[in-house]
Amino acid sequence: MKKSLLFILFTLFLLSCEDKKKAVDLKEDSSEEKIIVQDSIEEAKIISEREKEKECFVYLTNENVTSFLTEYGKENLEQNVSLITNLGTIELLLYNDTPLHRANFIYMLKNGYWDTTFFHRVVDNFIVQAGNSDRKETSTMRSTLGKYTIPAEIKYGHNRGALAAAKEYRANPDDRSSSYEFYIVQSSGGANHLNPNYTVFGRVTSGMEVVDKIAKLETDGSEWPYSNVFIEAKIKD
Questions:
Q1: 7-11, 34-38, 39-43, 68-72: which range is least confident on average?
Q2: Domain ranges of the chain
């Protein structure tokens, strides 16, 4: 009888230990699940933030660009910009009295657009032009930021080192500027024949020797350089 009782007690003890072991194992599994759930929450949070950014993004058109850039310019007051290239750095000053163009240039910079582009048109003793490329990133950025032009703000002449906005020739009686392309006057005597049809909105303060190097690059028949001069644009303020 005693032996039977001892056997039953021993069996119950073993079962109790097994249950405890299972409980420990379940707790470990549960802990792992919490980590996984936390990871999922963090991932969802990141996705949510990205979606929020998209929802806050304004697709720009000719109808809303003036009001948008006016407000953007009030909140983003930067004027000094560095264009870093493999041939050297070009320092720019953006004029406050061409507020829409200044705001647009800073807007493009802060959205990373200029960094997808390079100097795509080079004419020695005339201009070097930037803001385009044959890269997919550039066309993707354009389709994301909007299809719009900027109202003309014509106040300055095309002296050497002038920073100006390109524009469409066709169906553009108001001389509205391209939002995506700009050029720097490289010729020693300026390019006054372009006055007063293009908006000059800044000037080179340092690095004209870099502009001269770019202007000397060999090009194809469409004035596109054989060597890409990529841009890294940074705020200097």
A1: 34-38
A2: 1-56, 65-235
Task: Please give the full DSSP string across 80-104, using - where no structure is assigned.
Answer: EEEEEETTEEEEEEE-TTSHHHHHH
C-alpha to C-alpha distance for 20 and 43, rounded to whole angstroms = 35
Which residues make Cβ contacts (< 8 Å) with residue 89, sequence separation at least 6? 82, 83, 206, 207, 210
CATH classification of 65-235 is 3.30.450.20, yes or no?
A: no
- Distance of alpha carbon 215 from alpha carbon 211, whole angstroms: 6
Structure tokens at 235: 């705020």
Report the alpha-carbon distance of residue 158 to residue 78 in Å, rounded.
Answer: 23
Measure the CA–CA gap between 98 and 169, rounded to whole angstroms.
21
The DSSP call for residue 227 is S
Q: Is the pTM of this model over 0.85?
A: no
Chain centroid offset of residue 80 CA: 17
**Residue 169: pLDDT band with limits 50, 70, 90:** confident
pLDDT per residue over 65-122, tens digit each? 999 999 999 999 999 999 999 999 999 999 999 999 999 999 999 999 999 999 999 9
200 Cβ neighbours under 8 A, 6+ residues apart: 95, 98, 154, 155, 156, 157, 158, 162, 163, 164
